[in-house]
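During the no-cost extension, the postdoctoral fellow (Dr. R.K.) reprocessed legacy sequence entries with the updated structure-token encoder. One reprocessed record is reproduced below for audit purposes.
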Amino acid sequence: MRIAVDALPINNFSGRNVLGGHLRNLAAAGAGRHSLHVFHHAGNRDLRRELGPHVVWQECASAKTGSGWARRLVWQRLSMQRALDAVGADLLISTSGALVPGVRTPQLVLVQNPWCFFPQFHARASDKLKALLQRHGYRRAQREAAAMFYLSDFMARIYADNAGCGPRHGATVLVGVNDGMFEDAAETPLPAFAERAPEIVVVSVMTPHKSVEDVLDALALLRGRGVEARLSLVGPWSDASYRAAIERRIHDQELTGSVEITGGVSDAELMRHYRRARVFCLLSRCESFGIPAVEAQVFGTPCVVADVCAPPEIAGPGGFAVPAGRIDLAADALQPLLVDAEAWRQASARALDNAERFRWSRLSGPIIGFIDRWPSP
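Re-encoded structure tokens follow.
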């Protein structure tokens, strides 16, 4: 069978991780029986990997395809079916969470993005329009797609609520941690409590909905209690104004000597941060999954997350979920992980156990099974 993959919407790290992991598994499982034709644009050419002779990478419609969602939708409506016909595609994998417009080829949809369901993050008129169109597209996909595969149970629930129905065929398919992280964690013994700094690490693309302010406020509260904690903010920033606002907050709370802002880092540096911290914290208000929490757990680092969206189910027993906006409860969850060796040891062991769920070799099975059975019900 010939399977086409619409990779045109993939423009960030999380999307690259999701698509890359599933493509590796699909290529290995379907070798000799299925071929994969991956449509991408010049702006995400770095997706390309050597995955064997049955995976063909095809660049589409110049870099303009990746320069904006509206242009992409126009190109898809006008040109995608022609591209699918040219390769003889029997099935199309959509990575946008919605059906690719203007396409009659049956579609399998990967569900990744909850942004449109959170109006508090739609500041501009263009945001509101985009969110409206996404919700409409997500409803249609839920009702009409051949199959829906959700990153988390949270995403499955929010899609069902939006559409008022379940999918024709659907399953939750978790996202894996890159094998290199598991390998690095196994190379040398993981540091024990006493060998780690009393440090909280936040790993994310730093945007307003990640609620970095809440972590700063929790740090200030901890230090007010006499806990000599530090904080590292690891990852790129969405815009300079948000970083400037966070830096002002750090200054106003007299935390300048206690907070490190790294910006984007290499994979090797990222793993060093996970190894040296005692606790990972992300109090984001909008997450479809939350892969950094699992990455931290690979290194035995317990997690504190906000009790919203997917992170509580992803962090599992190796994490602690606190109500969004309850800074006092966030500080209460962080404190024993920073100062109590036995509490940390128990949480670290649970984190390591939970991380095992996220090896790529254990994932993609529901997608592979659906493709192998297609077009049978």
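The longest helix spans residues 125-144. The chain has a mean pLDDT of 94. The remaining legacy entries will be reprocessed before the final report is submitted.
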